[in-house]
Write a structure and sequence with these properties.
The chain has a single domain, classed as YVTN repeat-like/Quinoprotein amine dehydrogenase (Methylamine Dehydrogenase, Chain H, 7 Propeller). A seven-stranded antiparallel sheet has the order 14-15-16-17-18-19-20, with no helix packed on it. It is mainly β. The protein has one helix and 29 strands. The longest helix is centred in the last third of the chain and has 12 residues, at about 315-330. About 5% of the residues lie in helices and about 50% in strands. Strand 8 (about 85-90) and strand 9 (about 95-100) form a beta hairpin. The relative contact order is 0.16.
Amino acid sequence: MEKKKVAVSKVCHGHSRPVVDLFYSPVTPDGYFLISASKDSNPMLRNGDTGDWIGTFEGHKGAVWSSCLDTNALRAASGSADFSAKIWDALTGNELHSFEHKHIVRACAFSEDTHMLLTGGVEKILRIYDMNRPDAAPRELDKTPGSVRTVAWLHSDQSILSSCSDMGGVRLWDVRSGKIVQTLETKAPVTSAEVSQDGRFITTADGSSVKFWDANHFGLVKSYDMSCTVESASLEPKSGSKFITGGEDMWVHVYDFFTGEEIACNKGHHGPVHCVRFAPVGESYASGSEDGTIRIWPLNPANTEDPEAPNANGKPKAAAVANEVARKIEGFHITKEGQTEA
């Protein structure tokens, strides 16, 4: 009997609470990096290829809902339930600045040119901070119709996308005027909105639906209904021929972009999957779950064995992989002051 190919993930431990957001940096001269946001209040930085832990940013006093890296992966940003968004030095772990808000910050994003930080949250206000003048008051756009869930830049920082936690639709803002110029209609609130690496598509997840929009003309290109509630979706960045989803069924699904046919179903998480993202090179993707772990999956698995099958020691292979990765990432710890600890 021919054995079905099963993806074996690299399991990244470290968070003590659910992982709610993942962000990959672009490819830099030093490789690419993955930052994670968790309800444990400590964003973590990892090698994007191996998943090896690099450091933890300490300083927030509440759940961290969003985290991101700038284009060069030199600075990190995080938005938290402690009513703040923080900027970090991604090389030392130092906190560079803290932007105080009046309510929970749910989303943050660096502009492509790295000069601006966009934040949004329960206040229903989008703010743009000037990274060259961090002490200056931020620019505030018109109030959003609801509590902000996601934010993203597009069109070379000329436009902004935002979605709300309590109503459907993705709103397109003109940065120059600060006004909403268009709304992409969805029935359910959009929990994930991603601009493709080539700037052609906007991928959204709302309810049990995954939609792909033309990022320049804003027409609906594809819409697929899934079998369960989907919390996050991501489009493969190189060929754009596949997409992934994660949601309440605890599995990470891979689909054909053109037909919607399921290609793979990866099992391993022990709680709902809150976030999925493709690596910038497109050869792997990451998922973050309620179970507190991050898993990095190969897009084209080479193995043909069930990861739950026992190895020579009688232990499931998946558990052996998890233990090996956990052992490898026992490295250094970045404190708030930026010192490293063995």
